[in-house]
Amino acid sequence: MLLEVKGLETTFFTNDGKIPAVDHIDFKVYEGEILGIVGESGCGKSVTSLSIMGLVPNPPGKITSGEILLEGKDLTKLSEKEMRKIRGKDIAMIFQEPMTSLNPLYTIGNQLIEAIRIHNKWDKKKAANHAIEMMKLVGLRRAEELMKEYPHQLSGGMRQRVMIAMALACNPKLVIADEPTTALDVTIQAQIMKLMQDLNKKFNSAVLLITHDLGVVAEICERVIVMYSGQIVEEAPVMEIFKNPSHPYTRGLIQSVPDMREKKETLYSIPGAVPKPGSIKVGCRFAPRCEFARERCFNENPPIYDVSANHKARCFLLEKGEGTVYDKRAVES
Amino acid sequence: MTNVLLKVEQLKKHFPKKKKGFSKTTDVVKAVDGVSFEVYEGETLGIVGESGCGKSTTGRMIMRLLEPTDGKIYFNGIELTSLSKSEMRKARRDLQMVFQDPYASLNPRHTVEQILEEPLIVHGIGNKSVRKEMVKEFLQIVGLNSYHAKRYPHQFSGGQRQRIGIARALMTNPKLIIADEPVSALDVSIQAQVLNLMKRLQEDLKLTYIFIAHDLGVVRHISDRVGVMYLGRLVELAECESLYEEPLHPYTKVLLSSVPIPDPTYQKEQILIQGDVAESLPKNGCLFQQRCPFATEACKTIVPELKEVKPGHSVACHLYDEPQQ
């Protein structure tokens, strides 16, 4: 096991009160795997990744409880200085916006060399050679020339490749990719996803992929975590979650995606809107939008139940003896 | 097929590039370069393509929010391109637009009532009390409540704002609605709601849509016919089923195979192409030649025309030329 998140709670202290953007989540990342976290806006998936990196903007945000164990070492207890040694070296991050995550005033080469030299005591020449090598590895042609160019001279797909090269430059154990392909066109998205998959195999770095796109998840992830309103509602291997989604939200989400392969008359849609983080305090967060919700769902917060060995979901319908109700109604719908 | 509601002929939009130094010749960016299509009454024409392909520019030119460089647009028999500004304003009663960003397209200082009343005032429809009634009616049509009328846009979620944007477009009882990426800023669960709403409204109000989007799944779901654009040109135009089941243009094939399918058991044949739209454009011939695995000599010199190769299925590619050539 590479990373273990235990009871993580990240709270934002705002004028409207305390908002738990991430509310006691537990999960594990194993070496070399690709784990996806899916959810809609405001579900806490990005705050989770920022918490792991120790980059939650403070104030207003703060990790209020829980542990983040990287190979047994609790990252929440480290000082900023110690954390810097881990960022980029052990855990690297790829952001959504390749336009804003590169510094427009420095050349590509400059930025890559800086990233490499922070963690390795190499001279500039060696670092530059390594940077060129990394750029070639991520499929950038003309790597030598690109070293002297500025981010605005590159297209979106190329910038994202540079970001990936930078993230992998120090051979991290874990790469967190927060919506790495959302800003890109589909043909470029396909190229980048293929690249990430290949590099995952080659370097054996674990990837924590944060996305809202179930298509991307189905294509490259091995396991999936579904988040809703700051909580994990379901966790399973990717095959399992698409075949047997056990939380009504997961099921609704999968059905809402217009599938390119066939045309349906009306799309299934989940009624209502995503709740504001922290607005639902009692009961299941999904209950107001859930077609299976009963009185109990509004009064008690459901615990996580085991569906099968690697498959967990947070829903009362999975309680022993009650599963039948759900199955029957699910078949009808 | 039914009546042609909108006809676009050889529509072009060239934007001048910044001049360099004292050079007299101005380079142009051909955002839209000779696009022709027809839209039939009551149908949805989807237009897909990647960023920079000119799909939004095309939509804005039909509304004459952008002046076309060349080409003609006929709407219901009237040539829109020859109308004066004030005549065009009147014509927009039948021609409305829904924008992508529900956060930017609603005036934050107006209440929903003011926003929805505006098009009625512009077109001189009804008196004050009639207009107020209409606002309430249309709020209900798009699935909101009449008490929402007094609120401001910031009090609504993204999905609700997009419903307001749709209601505003419907206020003047238009014939054609141009929707430019109407669901791409929304979450998946909300996106499905808005798509279903748009489909329902089309049936109830006999609307015609031009649906501009980059998401191929969404476009398949809502469209009757689909046009694929690449670098300012229409490369393929066909019935929805025909295009998705049997794409002809190599670019359409690549595009379709690139879409991630939300089903891990599905084994697809992925065609990955090299390069990127932004790289240097060829001066002659087909614009896709550098990235196309099937490019021949002809592709380097002759611009392929959009030709019907099967009933209702047109493609602009030399692979489908008559064999005698």
Topology:
The complex is a heterodimer of chains A (333) and B (325).
Chain A: E1 3-14, E2 17-29, E3 34-38, H1 45-53, E4 61-70, E5 73-74, H2 80-86, E6 91-94, H3 108-119, H4 124-137, H5 143-146, H6 156-168, E7 174-178, H7 186-203, E8 206-211, H8 214-220, E9 223-228, E10 231-237, H9 238-243, H10 248-256, H11 295-299, E11 305-308, E12 311-313, H12 323-332
Parallel strand pairs in A: 3-8, 3-9, 6-7, 7-8
Antiparallel strand pairs in A: 1-2, 1-4, 4-5, 9-10, 10-12, 11-12
Helix pairs in contact in A: 3-4, 4-6, 6-7
Chain B: E1 4-16, E2 28-40, E3 44-48, H1 55-62, E4 70-75, E5 78-79, H2 85-91, E6 95-98, H3 112-122, H4 128-141, H5 158-170, E7 176-180, H6 188-205, E8 208-213, H7 216-222, E9 225-230, E10 233-239, H8 240-245, H9 250-258, H10 297-301, E11 307-310, E12 313-315
Helix pairs in contact in B: 3-4, 3-5, 5-6
Describe this structure in words.
Chain B: Residues 6-256 form the ABC transporter domain. Chain B: Keywords: ATP-binding, Nucleotide-binding, Transport. The complex is a heterodimer of chains A (333) and B (325). Chain A has 333 residues and is of the alpha/beta class. Chain A has a domain at 254-333. Chain A is built from twelve helices and twelve strands. Chain A has an eight-stranded mixed β-sheet, with helices on both faces. Chain A has a four-stranded antiparallel β-sheet with strand order 2-1-4-5. The longest helix of chain A is centred in the middle third of the chain and has 18 residues, at 186-203. Chain A is globular. Chain A starts with a strand and ends with a helix. With 325 residues, chain B is an alpha/beta fold. Helices cover 30% and strands 23% of the residues of chain B. Chain B contains ten helices and twelve strands. Chain B is globular and about 65 Å long. The A-B interface holds A 40-41, 155, 157-158, 185-191, 193-194, 212-219, 238-239, 242-243, 252-254, 256-261, 263-264, 266-271, 273-274 and B 50-51, 157, 159-160, 187-193, 195-196, 199, 214-218, 220-221, 240-241, 244, 254-266, 270, 272-273, 276-279.
